Amino acid sequence: MNAQVRLAASITPAVAVLALVAVWGRGLPALVEVVVVLLLAGCVLAAVHHAEVVAHRVGEPFGSLILAVAVTVIEVGLIVTLMLSGGPGVATLARDTVFAAVMITCNGIVGLSLLVSALKRGTAPFKPEGTAGALATVITLATLSLVLPTFTTSNPGPEFSGPQLVFAAVVSFGLYVLFVFVQSVRHRDYFVPEGDDDFHSYVPSGKTALTSLGLLVLALVAVVGLAKVESKSIEDAVFAAGLPPSVVGVVIALLVLLPETLAAARNARRDRTQISFNLALGSAMASIGLTIPTIAVASIWLSGPLMLGLGAVHIVLLMLTAVVGTLTVLLGRATLLQAGVHLALCGSYLFLAAVP
């Protein structure tokens, strides 16, 4: 890695966090908005760089796990902060954000990774043993947390009762912890691509890896924070275009998931589609497995309803994602056709968010 890139990746997160502190909660002139967007883009690139350094040190699947968890923990913190601050849309904020993450990761990132890999080598190979287990966990978590509240009868509306929310939180967190154990300890080989030892021939020192881990977290804090800063401008643009308010959450989710999207595409280009899948499905899983327990605890201080249940259109899209995802991972290799189907599903979700 060239020295200038390393220097930029080290400086940008710190500068971005300082800028975040300076602009938080203030109206911004057009020139400052441009600077904020440039810093956000720089932090995305910096996050991918530092995640890769950490991955070289700890090996896979720990590298992709660290990036997925780091992004999700910061995103969950942002969700809870917004929910505690009140305002319009709080009742559905967790549901909308988690579902956006699931659709973008399971269709957008997966489809992009398959496209990049299939264009390069004809087919995109991966290990069905690990990928199928990850997909099954994502679909189970999404159904338990986002579909069942629409049909339960203890409370009116698409929401859990108190005991149901506690049960969903315990099951979500338990399944996520079990998956991490299987992925990183019990069946680690199911989640590591063949010949991955060559990729990790360069092993950075412990000090370098720890520094990159700290800068990775700093960069992700800046990405999420600057995305929130830009949310007012995004909101104004959305309303000016006559789009539904939920589109704001989708755009912010796209911004927050940029580091993982870029990292997944780079791994796919290096014939490491399995790592791309680890990033995509791991992010979806972490988004549910960490968000639901957190908001269950936060609901002690929250007033008003907490609507988790999806509407009919989104349930159809989730079920279609489950079926298509299962058929994609069945054989352990995919072509441009599967890439196109996943990207079409992601595009359908984004289009229907704008034109419900």
Automatic annotation (TrEMBL):
Residues 34-184, 212-353 form the Sodium/calcium exchanger membrane region domain. Its main location: membrane. The keyword Transmembrane applies. It comes from the Bacteria. The keyword Methyltransferase does not apply. GO terms for cellular component: plasma membrane. Keywords: Membrane, Transmembrane, Transmembrane helix. It is a multi-pass membrane protein. This is Ionic transporter y4hA.
